[in-house]
């Protein structure tokens, strides 16, 4: 018999402990399908290389999560790039540049496209390489594999084959889906942590078949042979149907024998297992779906702008072609050539007056290529670069780093950065998100007496709400009572203070016997596993939930220490009432009836040392009071009163009760129960529940427990700031209504004076109908009731009252409210309320509510935030999913778009990074279109000036490098570094965030305004340059301006204008921005010198034109100066007037900062009053409401 060092490592007969989970399976229903369709897998255990096994040709255990392979990278990534319509256009233009239609050389057309596509492909390759490295690390992990003759050697995971026997040791991950054969426990059980699969941190228990449980040594597998027949690979984590043929006997297999890849072995020295599913056949890989593709609203609007510019491009090309066709037709009349320089008499089809229509069509194609500079070729890649850099800043923000858990913020996607600045509604989980999910035992009611003097966050909030001190005596007690526990280190899970109970003083209480039974029940009725610290000797516990851990810890601290679990017993150190000393007591464990959401309770049946059979039960008040015996209700009234008080204080309550059983009753129950739990039929759970009902009755009430799930640090302050920013906050929780409401008060989502609209089916009428058991009638009446309650709520909120409303609805009612014909009414009511709290919500309901809010308000951005596996659907459904990397595991964080460690970091993420990213991306896109229209429209104007002959105004390479070098870096700096106001002012004036919610910085008016600015700038540049230079001598020799000089002058003006425009638009200069803006201009002149010095065969029209013609001519410099000032002056005047007389939110804050009024409350209040959405939740709203109430009272008194 093998033993482990720690007490929890002792052998446990799971059939005795985990009554629901384990037990012998039998061949019924599902197992009859083995060998049929979907159940065809055959595994030859310990014979992976036998002839029969190789016939099946199952895949190896190599896993790849990469998007590309070496062979598919180029075709797949190119396909991804050319899904963008802009890139397809540039590809077509590049292809046409090889034909005579092209107005410039093919090299200058192809190179920018190659640079842009290449840069994006390099980014894709880098991201995929990081995934490849993770795959390499996982695939090369080692596990012990049976090589034959009872010898095990290390082997890489990727080399595992179906049928291999592996040995996995404590705290190692399972390398594939394994069939559990045995463990170091005699009963062949093992403890498994499935956090990577479902986000749950509680341990699951698995048990091998009894026939293989004796295989404890490596040598046992020397001659082991078995054949497993089972279901084909599928994604269902919680089902497994199969059979094992061993020693000519067939045994049924259930999920209880299956160990899933990526789960971890815990509290067990080792297990032996046979590989059933490998690689991409494993259930975790079958479940690995790509997260939904999310695109921001800004990006979607950007696509529309691109289409709009395409339309402008086509119209310009069409207009030019029509004029060109007309002019060409009239080019040769009576032998006179109007455009003699085009030689229409000797031309091909391009300028042939006799084929004017064909010439116009060809010109249309030429114009489509030439005016392509209206479409910014580098826009997409620039935005991707900027977003990646923005994400790095989010990840590196020290203010969003949680030191206790060593977790920084992590932007898992950069696609949604600007969306963070436009959030209209936040849908939040409660437990673990607003609260810590770290339960503390704080109060209890025993024998009708309330114990525990601790004060909860909710009680403090309620006291603030009422403007009154804490309950009488509480503060005095806390201050005056000398509690020895205060001198010790803080005990996690325990915050109980009451001198009547601690240190064994409960012995002197009137009902000491009930108190003893109460804490004894806490020490025995659970599924926790004890672990002794070898250094300190202190016992700690692995429990299925934080609540259960808190109960066992509380029992330990109050004198009932659970310290050992064996195969059939639970051992406790108890305080003996007679001697006053601790004694050891053992309880024989007969059965455990586990907790589930339907039963809402758990029980253990134990036999004490006196031979008494006891049923110990704890559960929700809604199911426990009705199961009490007539003579067991002595303390019911007081206990109900106390549980209501605890719920009002935001505490989670459970009722504790017990009963004595006789042997005959138990034996009868156990026989039926064993048969039911060993069944594998579809109604097994229902059978087990029904049998549990038969014995969990006629109990005697002991009392109630109350545990506090504390609010996370900074939650009320964060919610207040978000509310001031105009963001609506909905809470979706599985807690009961009273707890959720009081947590709402604690975090200032609810306040005194706010009218509550409560929608529930807990009414007398509905309960009466439910007792009839007529399901159709119940459904009809329930739905009618919900519709009526919603209608009444809408009437209230639309009655013209200025009061704020809060909507509270439970999960049962929500099911009807989300039905197709009711959901729009529900949404209408919900969006009219200041706060919405959905209680008792299932994961699916959370997801459906999120979808409803998102789809009904298509122009509004929704953000979901949660920390558990039950929040994943909600996170993926919302526009932005924020995962809290907290107590409930990493599933939510891994499924999110951005992961943070605490709810309070949401304040900085949205109000600072969100606002900055939205403003930067919006300004960046507007500026991109501005600079491209400025440049592209001069090409059109020159075309018109040159009678649409297809002649480009600029040298080929000037045009090609415009977006790539001379104007690209400043816009990248804008997207990464610009700040309209500092982070401190973003947080001080949350209303600034409303610029993003209202989308004022990326409205069609603003976009078209920037486009108009670009068109006007192009007009000024073209006409000023042409009129200033066309009729006068330019060089010393009297030569007039040629096309190359005119083009270079216009181009110089444009480079200066778009860079200086950037300098005027930037609010926050850094050295990098100075370098990029002025460096871009300097680089243009350096390029002119270098490019002009190259052979004329390459530099063509740019050959020494700057050094010989433009630089020596004063008029070149004067024209540049005059045009730049003339172009920028109107924008400067407009910006100055708007800043002074029509300031936006950020302009007002800039004024306050400039004039030094940042600490002046009057000025600050004046700015805050500009908010378009009144603040209705948060403690700021509470203060305002109180102030308004006092003003009304004063007015009333004056009257």
TrEMBL record:
Enzyme category, top tier: translocase
Designated name of the protein: Phospholipid-transporting ATPase
GO molecular function, one term: ATP binding
Limits of the P-type ATPase C-terminal domain: 893-1143
Family of the protein in this entry: Belongs to the cation transport ATPase (P-type) (TC 3.A.3) family. Type IV subfamily.
Domain P-type ATPase N-terminal: 43-108
EC number: 7.6.2.1
Spans annotated as Disordered: 465-484
Pfam name, any one: Cation_ATPase
Keywords recorded for this protein, A-Z: ATP-binding, Magnesium, Membrane, Metal-binding, Nucleotide-binding, Translocase, Transmembrane, Transmembrane helix
Highest taxon in the source lineage: Eukaryota
Residues involved in ATP binding: 429-431, 548, 595, 618, 652, 733-735, 840, 846, 870-871
Topology of the protein relative to the lipid bilayer: Multi-pass membrane protein
Hydrolase recorded as keyword: no
Essential cofactor(s): Mg(2+)
Amino-acid positions noted as binding Mg(2+) in the UniProt annotation, renumbered to this chain: 429, 431, 867, 871
Transferase among keywords: no
TM ranges: 85-103, 109-126, 305-326, 360-381, 928-948, 960-977, 1007-1029, 1049-1068, 1075-1094, 1114-1134
Described function: Involved in transport of phospholipids.
Active-site residues, record numbering mapped to chain: 429
InterPro entries hit by this protein: ATPase_P-typ_cyto_dom_N, ATPase_P-typ_P_site, ATPase_P-typ_TM_dom_sf, ATPase_P-typ_transduc_dom_A_sf, HAD-like_sf, HAD_sf, P-type_ATPase_IV, P-type_ATPase_N
Catalyzed reactions: ATP + H2O + phospholipidSide 1 = ADP + phosphate + phospholipidSide 2
GO BP terms: phospholipid translocation; protein localization involved in auxin polar transport
Subcellular location, record wording: Membrane
One annotated Gene Ontology cellular component of this protein: plasma membrane
């Amino acid at each position: 018999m093998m033993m482990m060092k720690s007490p929890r490592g002792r052998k446990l007969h799971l059939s005795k402990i985990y009554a629901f989970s384990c037990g012998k399976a039998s061949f019924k229903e599902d197992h009859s399908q083995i060998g049929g369709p979907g159940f065809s897998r055959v595994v030859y255990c310990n014979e992976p290389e036998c002839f029969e096994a190789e016939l099946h040709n199952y895949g190896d255990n190599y896993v790849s999560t990469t998007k590309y392979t070496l062979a598919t990278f180029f075709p797949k990534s190119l396909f991804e790039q050319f899904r963008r319509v802009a890139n397809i256009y540039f590809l077509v233009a590049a292809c046409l540049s090889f034909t005579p239609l092209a107005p410039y050389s093919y090299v200058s057309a192809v190179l920018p496209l190659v640079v842009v596509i290449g840069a994006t492909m390099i980014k894709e390759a880098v991201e995929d390489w990081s995934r490849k490295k993770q795959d390499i690390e996982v695939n090369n992990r080692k596990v012990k594999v049976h090589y034959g003759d009872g010898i095990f050697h290390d082997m890489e995971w990727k080399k595992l084959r179906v049928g291999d026997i592996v040995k996995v040791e404590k705290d190692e991950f399972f390398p594939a889906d394994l069939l559990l054969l045995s463990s170091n426990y005699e009963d062949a059980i093992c403890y498994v942590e499935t956090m990577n699969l479902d986000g749950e941190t509680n341990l699951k228990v698995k048990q091998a078949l009894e026939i293989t449980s004796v295989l404890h040594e490596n040598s046992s597998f020397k001659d082991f042979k078995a054949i497993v027949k089972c279901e084909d690979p599928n994604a269902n984590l919680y089902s497994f149907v199969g059979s094992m043929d061993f020693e000519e006997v067939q045994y049924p297999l259930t999920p209880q024998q299956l160990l899933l890849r990526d789960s971890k072995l815990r509290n067990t020295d080792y297990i032996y297992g046979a590989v059933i599913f490998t690689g991409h056949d494993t259930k975790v890989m079958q479940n690995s779906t790509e997260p939904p593709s999310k695109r921001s609203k800004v990006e979607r609007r950007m696509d529309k702008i691109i289409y709009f510019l395409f339309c402008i491009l086509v119209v310009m090309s069409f207009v030019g072609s029509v004029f060109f066709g007309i002019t060409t037709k009239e080019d040769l009349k009576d032998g006179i050539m109007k455009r003699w320089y085009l030689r229409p008499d000797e031309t091909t089809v391009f300028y042939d007056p006799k084929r004017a229509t064909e010439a116009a069509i060809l010109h249309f194609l030429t114009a489509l290529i030439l005016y392509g500079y209206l479409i910014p070729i580098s826009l997409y890649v620039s935005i991707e670069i900027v977003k990646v850099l923005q994400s790095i800043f989010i990840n590196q923000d020290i203010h969003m780093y949680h030191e206790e858990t060593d977790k920084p913020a992590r932007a898992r996607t950069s696609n949604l950065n600007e969306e963070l600045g436009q959030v209209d509604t936040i849908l939040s989980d409660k437990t673990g998100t607003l609260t810590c999910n770290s339960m503390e035992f704080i109060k209890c009611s025993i024998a009708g007496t309330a114990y525990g003097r601790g004060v909860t966050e909710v009680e403090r909030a309620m006291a603030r709400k009422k403007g009154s001190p804490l309950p009488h005596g509480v503060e005095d007690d806390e201050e005056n009572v000398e509690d020895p526990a205060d001198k010790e280190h803080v005990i996690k899970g325990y915050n109980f203070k009451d001198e009547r109970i601690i240190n064994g003083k409960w012995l002197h209480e009137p009902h000491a016997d009930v108190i003893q039974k109460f804490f004894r029940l806490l020490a025995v009725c659970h599924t926790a596993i004890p672990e002794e610290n070898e250094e300190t000797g202190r016992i700690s516990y692995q429990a299925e939930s934080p609540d259960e851990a808190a109960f066992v810890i509380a029992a330990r601290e109050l004198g009932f220490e659970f310290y050992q679990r064996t195969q059939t017993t639970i051992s406790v150190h108890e305080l003996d009432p007679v001697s006053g000393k601790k004694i050891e007591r053992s309880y024989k464990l007969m059965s455990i009836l586990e907790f589930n959401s339907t039963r809402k309770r758990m029980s253990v049946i134990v036999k004490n040392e006196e031979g008494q059979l006891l049923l110990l039960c704890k559960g929700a008040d809604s199911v426990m009071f009705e199961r009490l015996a007539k003579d067991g209700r002595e303390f019911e009234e007081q206990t109900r009163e106390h549980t209501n008080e605890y719920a009002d204080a935001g505490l989670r309550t459970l009722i504790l009760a017990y009963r004595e059983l006789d042997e005959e009753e138990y034996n009868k129950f156990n026989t039926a129960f064993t048969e039911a739990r060993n069944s594998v039929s579809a109604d097994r759970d229902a059978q087990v529940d029904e049998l549990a009902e038969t014995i969990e009755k006629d109990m005697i009430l002991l009392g109630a427990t109350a545990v506090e799930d504390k609010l996370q640090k900074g939650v009320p302050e964060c919610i207040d700031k978000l509310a001031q920013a105009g963001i609506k906050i909905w809470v979706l929780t599985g807690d009961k209504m009273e707890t959720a409401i009081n947590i709402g008060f604690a975090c200032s989502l609810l306040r005194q004076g706010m009218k509550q609209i409560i929608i529930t089916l807990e009414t007398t009428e509905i309960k009466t109908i439910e007792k009839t058991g007529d399901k159709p009638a119940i459904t009809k009446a329930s739905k009618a009731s919900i519709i009526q309650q919603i209608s009444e709520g809408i009437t209230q909120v639309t009655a013209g009252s200025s009061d704020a409303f809060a909507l509270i609805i439970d999960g049962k009612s929500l099911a009807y409210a989300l039905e197709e014909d009711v959901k729009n009414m529900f949404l209408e009511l919900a969006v009219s309320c200041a706060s919405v709290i959905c209680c008792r919500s299932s994961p699916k309901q959370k997801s459906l509510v999120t979808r409803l809010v998102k789809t009904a308000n298509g122009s509004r951005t929704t953000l979901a935030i949660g920390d558990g596996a039950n929040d994943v659907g909600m996170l993926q459904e919302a526009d932005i999913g924020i995962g809290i990397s907290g107590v409930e595991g990493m599933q939510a964080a891994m499924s999110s778009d951005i992961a943070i460690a605490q709810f309070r970091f949401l304040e900085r993420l949205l109000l600072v990074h969100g606002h900055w990213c939205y403003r930067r991306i919006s300004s960046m896109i507007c500026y991109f279109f501005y600079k491209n229209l400025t440049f592209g429209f001069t090409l059109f104007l020159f075309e018109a000036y040159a009678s649409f002959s297809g002649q480009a105004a600029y040298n080929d390479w000037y045009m090609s490098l415009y977006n790539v070098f001379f104007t690209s870096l400043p816009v990248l700096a804008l997207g990464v570094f610009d700040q309209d106001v500092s982070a401190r002012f973003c947080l001080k004036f949350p209303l600034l965030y409303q610029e993003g919610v209202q989308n004022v910085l990326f409205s069609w008016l603003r976009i078209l305004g920037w486009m108009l600015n670009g068109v006007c700038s192009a007009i000024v540049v073209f006409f000023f340059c042409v009129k200033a230079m066309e009729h006068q001598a330019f060089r010393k020799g009297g030569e007039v301006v040629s096309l190359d000089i005119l083009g270079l002058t216009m181009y110089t003006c444009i480079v200066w204008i778009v860079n200086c425009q950037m300098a005027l638009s930037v609010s926050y200069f850094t050295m990098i921005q100075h370098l990029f803006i002025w460096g871009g201009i300097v680089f243009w002149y350096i390029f002119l010198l270098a490019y002009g010095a190259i052979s004329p065969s390459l530099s063509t029209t740019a050959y020494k034109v700057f050094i010989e013609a433009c630089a020596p001519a004063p008029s070149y410099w004067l024209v540049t100066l005059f045009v730049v000032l003339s172009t920028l002056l109107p924008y400067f005047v407009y910006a100055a007037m708007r800043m002074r007389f029509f300031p936006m939110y950020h302009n007002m804050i800039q004024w306050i900062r400039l004039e030094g009024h940042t600490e002046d409350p009057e000025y600050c209040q004046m700015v805050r009053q500009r908010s378009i959405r009144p603040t209705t939740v948060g403690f700021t709203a509470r203060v305002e409401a109180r102030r308004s109430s006092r003003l009304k009272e004063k007015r009333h008194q004056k009257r």
